[in-house]
Amino acid sequence: MAGDRKIGVAMDFSSCSKEALRWAAENLVRNGDHLILVNVQKEVYESGEVQLWEATGSPLIPLSDMSDPTIAKKYGIKTDMEALDTLNTLARQKEVVIVMKIYWGDAREKICEAIDTIPLTCLVIGNRGLSKLKR
């Protein structure tokens, strides 16, 4: 049923994660779905609000706030105009609700944690630039 699905995309704004986002937008996302970008930061900044969410991850950040450089700096993420343009187009064309959740720590552990805590219907992850043989 449309609107009931929560599709996750592991997003660090690298070329592989942008390709995973493009693939999910073309092949997986339907009208009314929720697209949740899961971002994991390696370092924990020692500033205010980030310490509150270190264990559980940030609250869901709407797409409109992702474009704001002040908010991006607050969470320590480096967004990309190409990816934001893709996300804005997807939100308009397919009426998808797009939010981001940021975790701090080990990427493998936090991505597995995100599947349970959000909860996600499915998760799309890029191939980290590895060929079929190295994966």
TrEMBL record:
<dbReference type="Pfam" id="PF00582">
    <property type="entry name" value="Usp"/>
</dbReference>
<protein>
    <recommendedName>
        <fullName>UspA domain-containing protein</fullName>
    </recommendedName>
</protein>
<dbReference type="InterPro" id="IPR006016">
    <property type="entry name" value="UspA"/>
</dbReference>
<dbReference type="InterPro" id="IPR014729">
    <property type="entry name" value="Rossmann-like_a/b/a_fold"/>
</dbReference>
<feature type="domain" description="UspA">
    <location>
        <begin position="5"/>
        <end position="135"/>
    </location>
</feature>
